[in-house]
C-alpha cells in the first residue's frame, strides 16, 4: 500500500522532475513508490544494467519504499492494451491515493508524452471492476501532472522543496552514466543531460517555481481536479520578504 506512486518513462525521470517533492512527501510520513516504464536502455550513455544499479542508489537517497520497472521498450513506449494492463496491475497492487506522472502539456520527449497518456487512462481504468487483471479494482483519488524541464502554463500548485533541494541533486547525481557534475563537462557531450546547461535550467526551473509561492526552490504540478482546502491560511502564507 502506497500513499503516492510517481510514474516516469525512464530511470532518472522522477528524480529530475519531482525528486524534491518525493523527498518532501517521505519526510511528511507518506509512503512513496516509483514506477519506471522502461529501463532506459536506448540512452546514448550507459546500459540498462548500469542504470539499474544507479536507480537503486537514487531510490535509497529519496527513501522511496518501492520501485518497479515494466521493461517497456525505451524510445518506443506505446499506448497499447499490454502497456495499460501492466500499469493497472501496479496501481491495483499498491493502491496509491495519488499518482504523479507527466502532465498533459507539450513534451519534448515522445516517451514522456505517451507515458502521461497511458497513466491518465490507467488511473481511471484501474477502478473498473470488469477490467479483469485478477485483482480487486482500485481508482486513485487523483492523477497529478508534472512538466518537463521547461514548464508550459501556470501550475495549479507548487511544492516547496527548499529543504530537499540538495537531496534532489544527490539523487540525480546517482545517475553517473547520464550526468556529469556541474562545471566538469568539457563541452563535447552528445546529450543535453550531460551538459552544464542542464544544471542551469534545472535550477532555474526550481527557482522560478519557488518564486511563485515565496520559496527558494519549488516543483510545479498540474491537478486534474479542483483542490480542496481545509486550512485556508497554510497554502498562501509566503516565506521570506513580502
Folded structure, characterized:
The chain has 242 residues and is α/β, with parallel strands linked by helices. Helix content is 36%, strand content 16%. The protein has six helices and seven strands. Helix 1 (13-27) packs across helix 5 and helix 3 (81-94) crosses helix 4. The chain is globular and about 55 Å long.
Summarize the structure.
This protein has 242 residues and is of the alpha/beta class. Helices cover 36% and strands 16% of the residues.
Strand content: 15-25%
Mean pLDDT: 91
Described by the principal axes of the CA atoms, the overall outline is: globular
- Distance between the first and last residues' Cα: 41 Å
**Topology, number of strands:** 7
Q: Could you give a short account of the major beta sheet?
A: 7 strands, mixed
Whole-number total of structural domains: 1
Task: Please identify the structural class as seen in this structure.
Answer: alpha/beta
Order of the strands making up the biggest sheet: 3-2-1-4-5-7-6
What is the CATH topology descriptor?
A: Rossmann fold
Binned, the helix content reads 25-40%
CATH first level: which class? Answer: Alpha Beta
- Given as residue ranges, the uncertain stretches (5+ residues, pLDDT < 50) are none
Helix/strand order: EHEHEHEHEEHHE
- Radius of gyration based on Cα positions: 17 Å
Q: Which architecture name does CATH use?
A: 3-Layer(aba) Sandwich
Number of helices: 6
CATH superfamily, called what? LmbE-like
